[in-house]
Amino acid sequence: MYNKRNVMLNTAKMFQGMLFVLGVACIVFDAVGTCQGQNVRLAAEALSLIPTIKVKVKGTIMLDPGHGGSDPGAISCLGYYEKDLTLKVANRLASELKSAGWKVIMTRDTDIFVSLDSRVVMANKENPNLFISIHGDSFTEPEPSGCTIFTSKVASDKSATTAMLLSHAMPVKTNRGVKQYNYRVLYKTKCPAVLIEMGFLSNTDDAMRMKSSAWQKQLARKITQALEVSGI
Predict the structure, then answer these.
(1) Is residue 197 among the annotated active site residues?
(2) Rounded CA separation 148/199 (Å)
(3) Residue 217: CB partners within 8 Å, gap ≥ 6?
(4) Is the same domain home to 177 and 207?
(5) Which domain, by its residues, includes 169?
(6) 34, 7 Cβ separation under 8 angstroms
(7) pLDDT in tens, 105-161
């Protein structure tokens, strides 16, 4: 004879190793059968004894894929549009941020036109912890390359600090550092805000790198890791 509740509790204890990686709860199960013919049923019942884990949302990030719809942005030297690049990168970044426990709001998640004023209104209404506008740079000559992080000329300390962290995290060969410019989505937004120029669409090496799915995934991971220590 066996005590059913004791068996259930013992089975529950075998579901060990609760750990958190980047704020995502993972449960490692180590199920060992103890009662012949009843393992599956007892294991299922034992799960009910384990408390539900709720992952605390770290904060809200608003992602702003530049351009869209009737506004293609720059055309890369490889023939693709800036609006398509920024949307792909933003979607990858959104997925990475959500996995790490952040709430994500997009100014657009499809190929539609959204005016600059509408983006500002959205940011000021939602008041996220950080607004990130994503773009690709371009020039009339093919030589310039590298990424740049922008803040407004009246940027808050949080904007400036986050911009520096993101600049150091960018997985690029040429880093043009942090610069200030009063882009409307930076100057008119009330929350901390940065604008990322990922590279030059007019430069062949940059255009090839930014088009790469592997690099886009790496960029999303690096940005997420930087935000983990930003204190925003």
Answers:
(1) yes
(2) 7
(3) 92, 96
(4) yes
(5) 60-228
(6) yes
(7) 999 999 999 999 999 999 999 999 999 999 999 999 999 999 999 999 999 999 999
Contact indicator for 157, 95 with CB cutoff of 8 Å: no
Q: Give the residue from 35, 40, 44, 37 showing the smallest Cα distance to 6.
A: 35
Residue type, 107: T
CATH number of the domain within which 82 lies:
3.40.630.40
pLDDT tens digit sequence for 54-72: 456 799 999 999 999 999 9
Q: What single letter denotes the amino acid at residue 122? A: M
Contact 49, 32 (CB under 8 A): no
Whole-prediction pTM: 0.77
Nearest to 63 by CA among 194, 159, 232: 194
Q: Which of 45, 126, 141, 197 is catalytic?
A: 197
Total domain count, the chain: 2
Residue 37 within a domain: yes
Neighbours of 217 (CB within 10 A): 15
Q: Do 129 and 208 belong together in one domain?
A: yes
Angle at 156 between CA 159 and CA 114, to 5 degrees: 60
Q: Which residues contact 220 (CB under 8 A, 6 or more apart)?
A: 89, 92, 93, 95, 96, 97
- Same-domain pairing of 215 and 112: yes
Query: What is the C-alpha separation between 95 and 159, in angstroms, rounded?
Result: 23
At residue 63, what are phi and psi to the nearest 5 degrees?
Answer: -105, 135
DSSP reduced 3-state for 103: strand
